[in-house]
Request: fold
Amino acid sequence: MSRQVDVHAGDLSHDGYCVIRQTLDPAVLAELEADLAPAFAATPMCEGVFYGHRTRRFGGLLRRSSRAEALVQHETVLAIVEQMLLPCCERIALNLTQAVEIHPGAPPQLPHRDQDMWAGPKGSLEYLVNVMWPLTLFTADNGGTRLWPASHVDQDVAELAEEEAIVPDVAPGDALLFLGSTLHGGGGNRAGAPRRGVIVSYCLGWLKPFELQWLVYPPAVARGFSPELAALVGYAQHRPNLGNVEGQCPSVLLGDNVPEYLGAIDALRPDQVELAAAFVAGQVG
Reply:
């Protein structure tokens, strides 16, 4: 798998996007879509020109369907994402899970870069990686995702010509990955049926995520997750000591008996442990 990960990570780094063909059984996506059908039916259309008046969106997919875990914890995808993001963080975090349904008559979405939700410096690091999982076939006619290849290279360019965009044809089972620095937008739906897909996004572990995972998945919900999934949604510290509860890893909240009083415990990087130990040793005598 390491060669496959390296190839796709290379494409992602070079072009700003990549497509992994049939990396998940389409039956899993069909089952997920069936699980999400009530939410698609009940969710109102969005308000605002960015989200789209002819578009439905809802999040919290891990509590709406157990099938969502197969997308969020896809081994190859996680390996690619970590290769892109771990140079700038100790651990990655789940940024959002979102189901999107673009209806006929929806206009194209404003081209944008998802990283712009954070006000930090741009161009020197990647903040996030998006993964689009189609529930229906994505085409240029039905609102497939528009991407501007290599637009991550010069991130000061806010607008590019529409004719420079591409719309990869992707089907259920395919995964479309693109960087948070890549200019993109949902397409206009000129077809006769809605286009459905799921976005799973991962960010640097020290960032505030788009979707507040700890509220979407409070301890009562996260206790049902595997330790790995719980950590991904935020029940893990990012060393040094970031994201703690009373000085301890927030995973302590997932136990059966949570003490009323907790003692703070260092969560330092190895280099910081060594530095602190040397400092303490220097005080002796």
Observations:
- The chain has two domains: 2-232, 237-285.
- The radius of gyration is 20 Å.
- The chain has nine helices and eight strands.
